TrEMBL record, chain B:
It is found in: Cell envelope. It comes from Kribbella albertanoniae. Keywords: Signal, Transport. CDD domains: PBP2_TMBP_like (cd13585). This is Sugar ABC transporter substrate-binding protein. Its main location: other.
């Protein structure tokens, strides 16, 4: 009896394995293709059309993009978005790192404390937005009532053009600091304890140790946290939608809100798609530059 | 959104699922055994209760047709409706406002009702002419008048009594601050915790009325030209601002400007004594307040009293699967029987002339005399302005108007911006 050539068997086996691999991937690939890639392509196509939802779509080439260039509202919304990102990303990163340092100690009940800090992230952003709207209420909100205890007359947080953005951003920071803390915590626990001993033998103060040893070794975590946070802040929508609807005036009208407004209030789907493509491009460029910047400075090897 | 990718995907998946189930539910609700179910869409959960009786009466007359109501919150109402209309699967019969009419009228999504009206023997001149006219497009009647939303002045009877004031039957205002309205507002203002009035950015109940009763107009005719910068309009807008910053009888825009402001809530809480409102607010206000509500007509200006009417209409989806049944429903909703059912239960002032007696009787029994609303509707009225591409423009105009209620840029400058937005082609 002849046995099949061993090489062929291996090839068949390999092909079977590949097929099995794809089969296992299929469910998530369908998700990625159907719910991420397809909409992205559709949006790019739609951005070339004049489509007011109830009118028939009409191909207009790059006219939407030309309109975009001269649209002050769009540029304003990107500046507002940038402002939001510039508050949220450093805020969230620093706060979560501090929290991670704080809870990275062996104390009784520490795990409950850690869990407590993650709860804001588990809650629905819309529900949290509502709760914070009540807290920020100028007349009866908890915050101004609290300030009132000290004889302070709290401002109208969400209806002041100056304060609305920091207030909304504060909620974002509050919401995601605990969650990002988890990554820093994991990062901290990956750093071998021997390094701490070594640096203290060399006479490094805790602060010096942090900046010279801990922080550089946290770079992989930092890369991840920064990138997901930048993307997340660029895409922030739900809390702003609930708390200020882009107002007062257009002081919190971030790009995502403008897109929503164009698409679902004004039903100008073509133009809304154009702004979406721009936002997509901006996030892509920012993310790639972050990767490039960190690539050169990151070590993954702690030994 | 932290781990944005995963949550986003989840959300998208959820939205997709919701979309699928939504498609399944609001379409093809058809005949099983000769029976038809019509879908009726509205946004007012108070009126939903009233409509149960109306539809019970309808099904009693038409045993083969039942009606299912879908109530959506205001914002979602328009988003969902418009996307559904575009997708070709919309509710059979739904509510429409004057402001949203222009964006749907020319798009072939609303069925002309002239045949329905003729077949049912309905006389259009027996409805309030303002509402009939509002839903006419190119000589076709696209909406059957449902009710009148009239603006009147609600006031907090406790605060008025405490200040020792008897509300005069006629209030007057003028841009220079003369007239008894301002006098009363000042008496009702106490420090910065209680205001006599609330001057805030709300077109229907506030600035459109000031402009009209000052002899100006926001727009010359439907689909016409905006004239916010006209001298009478600017004067009226300045007056709206003066009530806050000059006469100090109203909280300012930082507390009242939409979307974050809380003007209505301030009235509910008793922080504002006089508050102009559409009569449709009454069923919502009553459970919220701890004081008796009084009603007066809006103050008359230099050109007398002119109030905004925002009458709603019932419209029919042009591509409904059941045009005949939906037509019957529309005709029934326009009938005296249906309009009186809603009026007598205190929900609305029917658009049908002389059907409002029951409405007044209902509110009288609740201790509120709504006659000023009904009288105002019979007097001089003005419509909300409409223009081509209105939903986009009205959002911009309302946003720009916020500045009137903040003391930063000049009112004439703002008025110029408003005209520019409104008259843009």
């Amino acid at each position: 009896m002849l046995r099949p050539a061993p090489r062929r068997t291996r090839r068949v086996q390999r092909r079977q394995q590949t097929l099995a691999g794809y089969a296992l991937l299929a469910p998530s690939m369908i998700g990625v293709l159907g719910f991420l890639l397809a909409p992205v392509l559709i949006v790019i196509v739609l951005s070339l059309f004049d489509w007011k939802l109830l009118s028939t779509p009409e191909f207009i080439g790059l006219a939407n993009y030309r309109e975009l260039l001269n649209d002050d509202d769009v540029w304003h919304s990107f500046l507002v978005t940038l402002y939001y990102v510039l508050i949220c990303v450093p805020g969230t990163t620093i706060l979560s790192l501090l929290l991670a340092l704080l809870v990275n100690r062996k104390l009784r009940g520490m795990k409950y404390f850690r869990a407590l800090l993650v709860i804001p992230w588990m809650a629905t952003p819309v529900a949290m937005g509502l709760v914070w709207t009540w807290i920020f209420d100028p007349g009866r909100g908890a915050l101004n009532q609290f300030l009132g205890l000290f004889g302070l007359d709290g401002p109208a947080w969400l209806s002041s053009p100056l304060l609305a953005m920091p207030s909304v951003a504060a909620v974002h920071i509050w919401q995601f600091a605990g969650y990002n803390m988890l990554f820093f915590l994991a990062g901290l626990q990956n750093i071998p304890a021997s390094l701490r001993e070594a640096s203290s033998l060399d006479g490094a103060s805790p602060v010096a140790h942090f900046f010279a040893v801990t922080l550089p070794l946290l770079r992989p975590t930092m890369l991840f946290v920064l990138i997901t946070n930048v993307i997340g802040s660029f895409q922030a929508f739900d809390t702003i939608f609930v708390m200020t609807e882009g107002g007062p005036g257009d002081s919190t009208e971030v790009a995502t809100y403008l897109i929503y407004d164009e698409a679902f209030r004004k039903f100008d789907f073509g133009y809304a798609s154009t702004i979406s493509v721009l936002l997509f491009a901006v996030i892509l460029v920012v993310t790639i530059s972050q990767f490039v910047y960190f690539e050169r400075r990151t070590t993954y090897d702690f030994s | 959104m932290s781990h944005p990718l995963s949550r986003r995907t989840l959300l998208l998946g959820a939205a997709g699922l919701a979309g699928l189930t939504a498609c399944g539910s609001s379409t093809d609700k058809t005949s099983s055994g000769g029976k038809t179910e019509l879908v009726y869409r509205l946004w007012d959960e108070q009126q939903e209760v009233g409509y149960k009786a109306v539809f019970a009466a309808f099904t009693a007359e038409n045993p083969d047709i039942t009606v299912r109501m879908e109530v959506l919150p205001w914002d979602q109402y328009w988003t969902k409706l418009t996307t559904e209309l575009a997708g070709g699967k919309a509710p059979d019969v739904f509510w429409l406002t004057v402001e949203n009419f222009p964006d749907l009228a020319g798009k072939g999504v609303l069925a002309p009702l002239d045949d329905v009206i003729a077949r049912a023997g309905i006389k259009l001149d027996s409805y309030h002419p303002n509402v009939v006219q509002s839903y006419k497009f190119e000589d076709k009647q696209l909406g059957l008048p449902k009710d009148l939303g009239v603006v009147g002045l609600l006031y907090n009877k406790s605060l008025v009594a405490k200040a020792g004031i008897t509300m005069p039957s006629e209030l007057t205002w003028a841009p220079d601050g003369s007239g008894n309205f301002l006098e009363i507002a000042r008496k009702l203002t106490a420090g910065d915790k209680q205001w006599g009035f609330c001057s805030w950015n709300h077109s229907q109940t506030q600035w459109l009325n000031w402009i009209a009763s000052n002899g100006g107009r926001a727009m010359d005719k439907p689909y016409g030209t905006f004239d916010f910068a006209g001298p009478k309009s600017v004067e009226a807008l300045q007056w709206a601002r003066d009530l806050i910053f000059k006469w100090r009888v109203s909280p300012d825009g930082t507390r009242t400007n939409p979307p974050t402001g809380q003007a209505t809530e301030m009235f509910y809480r008793g922080e504002v004594a006089m508050f102009p409102a559409n009569n449709a607010l009454l069923p919502f206000a009553l459970p919220e307040v701890k004081f008796p509500i009084g009603v007066a007509a809006l103050p008359a200006g230099p050109s007398g009293r002119t109030v905004v009417i925002n009458g709603l209409a019932e419209v029919m989806f042009a591509r409904t699967k059941h045009p005949e049944e939906a037509g019957k429903l529309i005709a029934f909703l326009g009938s005296e029987k249906a309009q009186k059912l809603m009026g007598d239960a205190g929900y609305v002032i029917p658009a049908l002339n002389d059907a409002g007696a029951g409405y007044a009787a209902y509110w009288k029994q609740k201790g509120i005399d709504v006659q000023p609303f009904i009288d105002s509707a019979a007097g001089s009225t003005v419509n909300m302005p409409i223009a081509e591409g209105w939903t986009a423009k009205v959002a911009e105009i309302n946003k720009a108007m916020n500045d009137v209620y903040l003391d930063k840029t000049s009112v004439s400058g703002i008025a110029g911006t408003l005209d520019k937005i409104g008259n843009e082609r």
